[in-house]
Write a structure and sequence with these properties.
Helix content of chain A is about 65%, strand content about 0%. Chain A is mainly α. Chain A is globular and about 60 Å long. The two termini of chain A are about 30 Å apart. With about 400 residues, chain B is mostly helical. Chain B is built from 17 helices and 7 strands. A 5-stranded parallel β-sheet of chain B has the order 3-7-6-4-5. A two-stranded antiparallel ribbon of chain B has the order 1-2. In chain B, helix 15 links the parallel strand 6 and strand 7. In chain B, helix 3 packs antiparallel against helix 9. The chains are: A mainly alpha (about 180), B mainly alpha (about 400). The interface between A and B is large, with 127 and 134 residues.
């Protein structure tokens, strides 16, 4: 049912062009985790604005004279990612509600670990000032030290830790 | 010359641009197969190196594009956002994200793309991400100091490794091409039946690899545009064969006292405002910033005489020739540099007669100019020192 994916090198070339166009036009790179941060900041501000303004973390983004945190570049960009991903899935006939998981686990286990993984990304991206897109990919394209450090830390840890998570992804015999 | 934010593209329009670029970003991620967590996780188990291929090809493409656009003067590479480094927090954050990647099977960007086509696990990932940021925000005081520690600013990786930009670009490309070759071999060994690389057209891929490698080699010899232009105009032969317009300290003093509107003093000395004596109405610009497009409105006015004032005459000459090379006209160099002006007008020693019949007039003029200009300097200081115009940096980052 799945139609074929694009050749990864070609896809990488196009991704590089999108990133290059972004930097050429706007002077900044792509990102993703920043939009999640904006959602959290806006929500906290909406529910308890005193608390948000008094906080060292949220206070940087909200308060008198500051724009609504949802009116940020990354929020619009990530909304675009949602649209672009949907259009691409529609064009390639991949739209379907499905839980993708390794063969040895139940969907509920997958959901739990997906949420844990997301939470770790949410925390880690704050310390590193960005995630795989904003810090690693965009950071490496402009040759920032931060970009390379982030990339090495993410992928190095991924490989070091992969063995302990093999049950989540691999079949019985391969993960022995 | 890019980037077009903030001069050409307003903040409002920039949000529309963000949406359009996001759509392209999302579509490419989805077409690459980044909407599949099994595929993404495969990079850690050797059964699918799609992530590595897409990620490194994209990095090399964007980096090469930036270097080439910068070389041809189409992109001001010093105006683009360079992610600042907070070394230890970045490493710790990266480690946390690495564990998150293996457990969650996505990163934030790919999870949004996957959720868009209905992946339920991706929706849980995003939900977890929101809770993670919330937890981070609520507990922030616990690690506020750590969060801001080891701040190194927007440093570049080739400086950190003390090598040239071109050499680093070449090594990165060489590493990427090498990694593509090695991982293809690994992938075919781990999964002999359905490894994605089995479908590749090897000959075309090898040819592309060679071309990219050659491009990398080119970067070693390709100097960056600013450095090469400055080197060109600093060459003694070039300087000797290109005369410059000069004005001496007395003429400059006369024009300042006269409050002539058609001159503009360009002060090339340290952009530190504490540098001795800021001349009235001057603009402080460091030599490397002369390229910046924020000065275009001043430099491009032909009727304005741009008088270059530097520590010494050779610095002024270099800048003069550089501006000429960039296409600007009506420039002048202050004879003898700031020091000459200082010795003649601002803090003069006893007058040394030159034997000319104008000596008496010159002496009177200098005494009056001395008083007037010091008064003008004091006035402009009282008005509050003119904020040194900063290169407008684009804000970025997550």
């Amino acid at each position: 049912m799945n139609t074929k994916y694009m050749n990864p090198y070609l896809a990488g070339f196009f991704l590089g062009l999108v990133l290059l166009a972004t930097i050429f036009i706007t002077g900044r790179g792509l990102g993703a985790s920043g939009a999640i941060k904006s959602i959290v900041v806006a929500t906290v501000d909406g529910v308890a604005s005193k608390h948000a303004e008094g906080s060292h973390f949220y206070g940087t983004y909200v308060g008198p004279g500051k724009d609504n945190p949802m009116k940020s570049w990354l929020v619009f960009e990530v909304f675009g990612v949602l649209i672009g991903g949907f259009i691409s899935g529609l064009a390639s006939d991949r739209l379907k509600f499905v839980t993708e998981k390794g063969p040895r686990i139940q969907p509920k286990v997958r959901w739990l670990f997906a949420a844990i993984g997301g939470a770790l990304f949410g925390i880690g991206a704050q310390f590193a000032r960005g995630c795989t897109s904003g810090a690693a990919l965009s950071g490496m394209a402009v040759l920032s030290t931060a970009g390379f450090v982030t990339m090495i830390a993410i992928f190095g840890t991924g490989y070091a830790f992969a063995y302990f998570a093999r049950k989540l992804w691999l079949e019985e015999k391969a993960g022995r | 010359m890019g980037p077009f934010v903030p001069e050409l593209i307003s903040d409002q329009l920039n949000l529309v641009v963000a949406l359009v670029l996001g759509i392209a970003f999302g579509a490419v991620l989805e077409q690459a197969g980044f909407s599949s967590s099994r595929r993404l996780a495969g990079v850690f188990y050797g059964y699918d190196f799609t992530v590595l291929r897409v990620f490194f090809t994209a990095t090399v493409t964007a980096m090469s594009g930036i270097l080439l656009l910068g070389y041809f003067g189409l992109l001001d590479t010093e105006a683009i956002f360079v992610n600042p480094t907070w070394l230890v927090p970045t490493i710790v954050g990266g480690i946390i994200m690495g564990i998150g990647f293996v457990l969650g099977g996505y990163c934030p960007g790919t999870s949004v793309c996957a959720a868009a086509i209905g992946k339920i696990d991706a929706m849980f990932f995003i939900g977890g991400g929101i809770l993670g940021v919330f937890a981070f925000g609520e507990l922030f005081p616990l690690y506020a100091n750590f969060y801001d520690s080891t701040s190194l600013g927007p440093i570049k990786v080739f400086d950190s490794l003390s090598m040239s930009q071109g050499l680093f670009a070449f090594l990165l490309i060489a590493m990427a091409v090498g990694a593509f070759a090695v991982t293809t071999l690994i992938e075919k060994r781990v999964d002999r039946v359905s490894a994605p690389s089995l479908e590749f057209h090897s000959r075309k891929h090898i040819a592309a690899g060679v071309v990219i490698f050659a491009l990398g080699a080119l970067f070693i010899v390709l100097p960056d545009r600013k450095t090469s232009l400055i080197d060109k105009v600093s060459d003694p032969k070039y300087v000797a064969s290109h005369p410059v317009t000069m004005i001496d300290a007395d003429e400059l003093a006369f024009r300042i006292v006269d409050r002539e509107p058609s001159i503009r003093i360009i002060d090339l000395r340290s952009t530190d405002t504490s540098a001795s004596h800021v001349l009235p109405g001057e603009e402080k610009i460091a030599v490397r910033d002369l390229f910046g497009k924020e000065w275009l409105p001043i430099f491009s006015q032909r009727h304005l005489k741009k008088i270059l004032v530097g520590y010494d005459e050779s610095q002024e000459r270099t800048s003069y020739l550089l501006l000429q090379e960039l296409g600007y006209e009506n420039l002048a160099v202050l004879k003898g540099g700031f020091e000459a002006f200082d010795k003649t007008i601002l803090s003069p020693g006893p007058f040394v007669p030159t034997g000319s019949r104008w000596d008496a007039d010159v002496k009177v003029f200098r005494e009056r100019a001395h008083g007037d200009i010091l008064k003008l300097i004091a006035e402009s200081k009282n008005k509050g020192a003119k904020e040194p115009k900063k290169t407008k940096k684009v804000q970025g980052g997550c």
